[in-house]
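4.2 Preliminary Data

To establish feasibility before requesting continued support, the project team ran the inverse folding procedure on a target of 311 residues. The structure was first converted into the token representation described in Section 3, and no sequence information of any kind was made available to the design step. The complete token record follows.
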């Protein structure tokens, strides 16, 4: 079944089995419980070294990706690794799962991740490790296209389907596992069996936050080869806003100031602020942290505050 999308912001291009009218609701309604699955088990044969551990502005690609996904979802984030695969350091709240078999492709990892989240989330954003420009606004927009009668929200961004930057209902886990058991390992086989909405560039940019913060849809830019990684690493760090409060404002000035920084540590360094135990940071007025590896994305605001009593 295929239907056209008649108006911006309403995802109406649906493929797969016809929806059950009893479950029909407005397409694009946001699921309440969301989670993340980051696939780290690829062979990285073209890169020549594990992509998960590639350096990214003092952190790693895997740590950046998991932390960005964590910012955009309401529930847990899981990393699926290959059997015996070593991973770089990750935030304590990230859960690590293992593929039961090596070399079975991304559908195997999707099955593992969705099964682990099935009783804790309605939908999960599933992505690969190597998306250095992934933006929380993009993730939220894709998850927002999942509805009770939509199983998969699949971006078709920058000219290509993006099954590893897509949202999947977690109750697909048994179907995905069955396809893996039948050696039907391509994501396209899954899309033939469920209800898919495809989000082209215009549909994604219909979300005002995506249009403002990720207009080129760089969220889906991945790095498969050394030269791609080097070009991506050479890009200017995201433009963010820094402000200081309390005693720090007296020493460094209150701001706001525009700087370029890919991590919290770089934001502190940009204003000559030692990021030590005496300093806390509030990211976009929400997340309180002193983790220098915390990733920053275009449009972020960092407020630095003295952690000392009376400061």
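Position-by-position output of the design step:
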């Amino acid at each position: 079944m295929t239907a056209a999308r008649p108006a911006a912001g309403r995802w109406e291009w649906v493929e797969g089995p016809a929806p059950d009218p009893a479950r029909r609701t407005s397409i694009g309604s946001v699921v309440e419980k969301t989670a993340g699955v980051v696939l780290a088990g690829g062979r990285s044969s073209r890169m020549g070294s594990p992509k998960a551990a590639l350096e990214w502005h003092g952190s790693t690609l895997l740590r950046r990706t998991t932390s960005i996904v964590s910012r955009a979802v309401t529930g847990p984030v899981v990393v699926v690794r290959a059997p015996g695969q070593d991973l770089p350091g990750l935030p304590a709240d990230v859960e690590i799962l293992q593929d039961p078999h090596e070399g079975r492709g991304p559908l195997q990892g999707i099955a593992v991740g969705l099964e682990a989240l099935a009783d804790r989330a309605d939908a999960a954003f599933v992505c690969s490790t190597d998306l250095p420009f992934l933006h929380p606004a993009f993730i939220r927009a894709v998850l927002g296209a999942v509805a009770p009668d939509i199983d998969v929200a699949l971006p078709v961004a920058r000219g290509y389907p993006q099954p590893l930057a897509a949202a999947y209902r977690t109750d697909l886990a048994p179907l995905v596992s069955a396809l893996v058991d039948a050696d039907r390992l391509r994501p396209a086989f899954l899309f033939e069996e469920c209800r898919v909405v495809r989000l082209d560039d215009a549909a994604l940019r219909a979300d005002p936050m995506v249009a403002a913060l990720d207009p080129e849809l760089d969220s889906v830019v991945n790095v498969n080869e050394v030269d791609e990684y080097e070009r991506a690493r050479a890009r200017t760090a995201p433009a963010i806003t820094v402000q200081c409060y309390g005693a720090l404002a007296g020493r460094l000035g209150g701001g706001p100031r525009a700087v370029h920084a890919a991590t919290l540590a770089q934001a502190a360094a940009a204003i000559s602020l030692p990021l030590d135990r005496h300093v806390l940071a509030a990211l976009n007025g929400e997340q309180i942290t002193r983790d220098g590896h915390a990733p920053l994305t275009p449009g972020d605001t960092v407020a630095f505050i003295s952690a000392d009593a009376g400061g």
